[in-house]
Amino acid sequence: MTRSLDRLTLLETFVRIAERGSISAAARDLGLSQASASRQLADLEERLGAQLIVRSTHHLSLTKAGERCLADARLLLAEWEGFAEDFAGDADRIAGPLKIVVPVALGQTVALDCAVAFQAAHPEIVLDWILDDAPNRFSEVGCDLWLRVGAVPDETLIVQPLAEVERIVVAAPGLVGPADGDPQALANVPCAALHPFEGGRWPLTGPLGETADLDARVTFASNNIATTKRVAVAGGGYAIMPRWLVAAELEAGTLVEPLPGWRAASLTINAAFAPARRQTRRLRLFIDAMKDGLAGLA
Amino acid sequence: MTRSLDRLTLLETFVRIAERGSISAAARDLGLSQASASRQLADLEERLGAQLIVRSTHHLSLTKAGERCLADARLLLAEWEGFAEDFAGDADRIAGPLKIVVPVALGQTVALDCAVAFQAAHPEIVLDWILDDAPNRFSEVGCDLWLRVGAVPDETLIVQPLAEVERIVVAAPGLVGPADGDPQALANVPCAALHPFEGGRWPLTGPLGETADLDARVTFASNNIATTKRVAVAGGGYAIMPRWLVAAELEAGTLVEPLPGWRAASLTINAAFAPARRQTRRLRLFIDAMKDGLAGLA
DNA sequence: TATTGTTATACACTTAACGTATGACTCGAT
DNA sequence: ATCGAGTCATACGTTAAGTGTATAACAATA
Question: Could you give the percent of chain B with pLDDT greater than 70?
């Protein structure tokens, strides 16, 4: 009987090499010698009959086959983990890493509160909390969970809505004169928007359910909502903001609502994750905790 | 770095042991010594932290955990195989085993024709063709594909309809006098039915789309349609049969249609298989070939 | 009872994966 | 240009774990 090293271990090594972009770095992470890691990668390539990684002394890159293999290897490893977890002798022990990518503003505020409470409740879970506003592809970051405000640009993922985000119009006091409940009073006022901003106007809904389109003169756009808020507070323009993000400023009076009762279309906070047939228990628990914690956001 | 034997190999050994109900028999199948097989099973149990099999010298049985593990192990192994297949150097080579469980009548006739043609087209695929009318659970037989006429009694499976089966009323010549197109003329005629037969009557549709219920005096019932046909040919009763199953007898005149143009509700031939996220190529090809081959059945 | 088959385990053997060492290469600093 | 540091692949001796053989205990059957 031919003995062979664990196929799943080969996949783990490959995934770590791909994530680190270096055989040596991955070997150090995994507690192997560089030679062993190099050989395990070669073994996997031989077993699968395809080159997965193009080697050079200072730069590794994935082949097309390597990219496919990376996604599928992650899924297979997740399947094994979920499978093995079902039989764990200590069925109530919830442990292991969770890598979560979350937009900066959300990840510094309400979602962070939820995550901290979750981690306190499950101290053996290690949270890797990555704040990132870049519209990365899920497959590039290799995380367990991707929190997004708004649409998830990857149809291969399972998307679970967690909460709705109410958005209101805010501005620094003095930037806007009395709008008298008319959205068009802001048509020529500078606007600080989130990038990408499309359509040139904000569809708004008023206190009585009436609708109006506010034409937007965008003078500042960023992919980071916290900077957009800073610009608004500094009087650089009005902004459309989640209420929870500006609650303190509204309380302090550094921001006001020039259009009280008017709201922009709400956005959904979504949890996105890979469609492994079986999720680890800690991921499911985390998603549930996040959904509960964000439920009072509206 | 701790070296470990392949986790997937441990699962393969476990599945074979469970299917054979014997560590020794599985070891012989796999080309291992009995001692190695025994140890691999013990290793898997230790790794998962659960007892999977209750041992005795002459009888092995699965624990509850073992039953779950069996289903999931099969899926994980299928996932690996589909995954590895994607990278095979010889991408056009279609090889490996396929275990198919099929009702006896279907498996001796039209489905067999399709399977034989498929095997001729793909000589490196080994078909394990199991005829079985027993209403087994899918998980008991451990096959790749389960062909069923009618509903599939397992909601965990993916069910793909392949063809519709037209069913007509047939009887031996002389059993029934002229029915004059009236289904109730057969109400007191003995009927040979398939087991289980429920409802006590046959809903029929006539040549002009008219409907009638034929009350059934069932004097013979079997789970094997071929025996039901034999009873019909022998004059033991009329029967509701797929047209393709009695085509030869109708041609030879050993069976006649006492109700020409009347038909019973058609049944669907379904292909059922486990919801692994990725199917092996040969299974997909086989299902497609079966669907094409049965398309002209109606 | 004897025979045959089962599973678990001790023991010596086998072998593949291990780490160390080395060479070729690349990059950045001087 | 040289030097130092880091990269990856591979040869070689070592290590560790899985292997089969042998054995004991048990169970079923004739």
Answer: 94
